[in-house]
Design goal:
heterodimer, A: mainly alpha, 27 helices, 5 strands, globular, B: mainly alpha, 2 helices, rod-shaped, disordered N terminus
Chain lengths: ~650, ~50
């Protein structure tokens, strides 16, 4: 009940902030009521994450402070209720042939999402940082700088709303908030689709998006891309409005949404560039671009400033070399060189050339390399199935297309893709998810218009229906895990034992260690579940404890862990039943070699050994068709008396 | 993106309908092909 109350309060506050900001500026005028609510919520969610930053860095990240902010948001909503809930001028449309079936399918999908929200979080990225950092900040009562690249010293605007949910309603509110914000992204797509499509096709577009494998895999977790889709949709459509109207208010909204995206993820900078370039289409191009840029800078500056304050590099560590920053405990030139070659060799598996640029979408749909995660967590079959319909529509209506706001939104999405592909950053497909609703909307509108004209709507409907059926089937497989938790009344511990590799060690740590201890872990998905202070010793992403292949000195390692106040090590793999650390394997990591050296020097005592099960797919393991491997993990205690290997 | 109101709706030719149905079927099969290890695992799992 507390979770539902928390999430309801957050929803009202976000919608209230959004309506109060957009309504008086006329930015909600002419929209249907549903679109007004969804757009207000999207803008308000960005603003909420933005405003929580300030009490966060001031050390006032407390439940009363969040309650005051929520109260202010609700009051804003009351004051702006006319803008939010006022009369709807759009003509009423009677239910269509498929309305009932589509709503029923939507309810099924939402119910399965709710099951996921009811279960404890188990997604690795969420447990490593999307939820772990908000939890850390909430417990500390302040935003703390985490000197870890990619997932620590990174933009965290949306995560501030996670911290608020956690502070007010704990873990259940956190997972319910992510479910709700995921649904709102779908609702927003429906709102914009209604501008161009009848109710049934709008519902179909919403359902297709909400059951897209990439959405199913991320929306109910802490991963931000589905929520960023809200910022992209509102931002791109506002940019389109700005291009047409030349009004500063539209450019400000577009800039603010792009800024919220950049404030949540570095890749949002690409969206800022793409949407900002669209401003140049307007006759008053420089005035519009300037307005857009100022709004984007205000909305997105916080975390870049925070990074600069602590590292000297606003996009840490991207400018480390360029700025000529000196070596320090948190980043070093030698490690930076190694990081750039090794990390990006994995993250960018597809060569950047013209042929791959043009064929990447097809390639990603049909034969993706595993590292880009485009198969079970990709975009589903729909884009491929309806591509000929959309292409024919683009040709048939080519004289009308350029006059549509959707064309500008589509160009912004295309610009984002262009920058994303050529910039050489991670090619994981989920990074394109924020712009996917724009692409989906363009594809469905073009395909529907063309098929209606050529009386092939039944074929298009069959393609959409097959895609929905497959995607809901996939969601069903994913949901067995969560259904089991709800239906069997499973405990949180039992659920995490099934879903989290190395959880027995976490249980031991939470039972036997306290706030005066500090545990070094190398398995990032264990961070959130550990309730005592923890240090994530990632081999690539940090240098406070050097564990990359460049590190060869166990004595230096010992000094570094002592300097951080580490008292225990958790090795979740590479250990036998007696707690001996295996270092013979060529795959043995630095942590295993260094820990072994410390053990031989009598610096490290075995505290406990646990059976450990490695789970490569939670959903497929639950239904019994995917193997797991077993081994052992162990916790070691670092002796207090100084000793060195 | 309003449709051109000057031209009437067209009845599709048989060739167009066959081509579109064929595309949907082939594209779906091609998309599903990437999941063959998963499908094989379903049929190979114990008790099936």
């Amino acid at each position: 009940m507390i979770a539902i109350a928390t999430v309801s309060l957050l929803w009202l506050a976000c919608a209230g902030f959004g309506a109060a900001a957009l309504g008086p500026a006329g930015l909600l005028d002419g929209r249907a009521r549903g679109e007004r609510i969804a757009v207000s919520f999207a803008a308000g969610t960005g603003f909420f994450g933005w405003v929580v930053f300030f009490p966060g860095i001031a050390g006032w990240l407390t439940a009363p402070a969040v309650l005051v902010l929520c109260g202010a948001g609700v009051l804003c909503g009351v004051a702006a209720r006319r803008h939010l809930l006022g009369p709807d001028d759009t003509p009423a449309e009677p239910p269509g042939r498929w309305t009932g079936l589509l709503i029923a399918a939507l309810l099924v999908a939402v119910s399965m999402d709710a099951l996921e929200a009811y279960a404890p979080p188990a997604d690795a990225d969420s447990l490593a940082y999307h939820f772990a950092l908000p939890k850390q900040f909430a417990l500390a009562g302040a935003i703390e700088f985490v000197p870890r690249v990619i997932d620590g010293a990174a933009p965290l605007l949306l995560h501030m709303s996670y911290a608020a949910a956690y502070l007010l309603g704990g873990e259940s509110a956190l997972t319910l908030w992510t479910a709700l914000t995921g649904w709102m992204a779908g609702g927003l797509l429906y709102g914009f689709a209604r501008r161009y499509l009848a109710r049934d096709w709008s519902l179909a577009a919403m359902l297709l998006f909400m059951t897209t494998p990439a959405v199913l895999s991320g929306a109910g977790t802490g991963q931000v891309e589905t929520r960023l889709a809200m910022f992209c949709l509102v931002g791109a459509m506002a940019a389109a409005d700005a291009v047409r109207s030349g009004k500063a208010a539209d450019a400000m909204l577009a800039g603010a949404m792009a800024g919220f995206y950049a404030g949540t993820k570095y890749m949002g900078l690409l969206f800022v560039a793409s949407a900002g370039a669209a401003m140049l289409i307007n006759r008053a191009r420089w005035r519009m671009a300037f307005t857009f840029a100022v709004a984007a800078a205000i909305a997105g500056f916080q975390w870049y400033w925070w990074n600069w304050l602590h590292t000297g590099d606003p996009v840490f560590p991207a400018l480390f070399r360029l700025l000529g920053l000196p070596d320090s405990a948190i980043w070093m030139a030698a490690h930076d060189r190694w990081f750039r070659t090794s990390y990006f060799a994995i993250e960018v598996p597809i060569a950047r050339d013209i042929a791959n640029f043009l064929t990447f979408p097809l390639f990603a749909l049909l034969d993706p390399p595993p590292v880009i995660e485009a198969g079970r967590t990709g975009f589903g079959p729909l884009p491929l199935l309806i591509a000929p319909f959309a292409a024919a529509g683009l040709w048939r209506f080519r004289h009308h297309v350029l006059r549509s706001p959707l064309a500008v939104a589509g160009l912004i999405a295309g610009g984002f893709y262009l920058l994303w592909f050529w910039s050489g950053i991670s090619q994981r497909i989920r990074h394109l998810l924020p712009i996917y609703p724009i692409v989906l909307l363009c594809l469905v509108v073009l395909a529907q218009r063309w098929s209606a004209r050529n009386r092939t709507g039944h074929i298009l409907a069959a393609a959409a229906g097959l895609s929905i059926a497959i995607q809901i089937g996939g969601q069903g497989i994913q949901s067995v895990n969560f259904f089991r938790y709800a239906a069997q009344g499973e405990s949180r511990d039992a659920f995490l034992m099934r879903n989290l590799s190395g959880y027995p060690a976490v249980q031991w740590i939470n039972t036997h260690l306290g706030r005066n201890d500090k545990v070094l872990v190398t398995e990032r998905e264990l961070v959130y579940a550990i309730d005592v202070p923890v240090f994530l010793a990632h081999s690539d992403l940090q240098t406070q404890v050097e564990l990359s292949p460049l590190a060869n000195d166990p004595a230096r390692f010992a000094r570094q862990v002592r300097a951080l106040g580490i008292t225990h090590f958790l090795l979740a793999r590479g250990v036998d039943a007696a707690g001996n650390i295996a270092t013979e394997s060529p795959k043995a990591a630095r942590i295993e070699r260094f820990a072994n050296a410390l053990r031989h020097a009598n610096c490290l005592d075995l505290a406990a050994v646990f059976p450990s099960r490695r789970i490569s797919s939670r959903a497929l393991t639950t239904i019994g068709i995917w193997p797991t491997s077993t081994g052992y993990g162990a916790v070691y205690r670092l002796r207090e008396t100084p000793c060195s290997p | 993106m309003d449709p051109d109101s000057r031209s009437a709706d067209r009845t599709p030719s048989t060739a167009l309908r066959v081509a579109l149905w064929g595309w949907v079927a082939l594209a779906l099969a091609a998309w599903l092909w990437q999941f063959r290890p998963l499908i094989e695992a379903v049929f190979a799992s114990p008790g099936r």
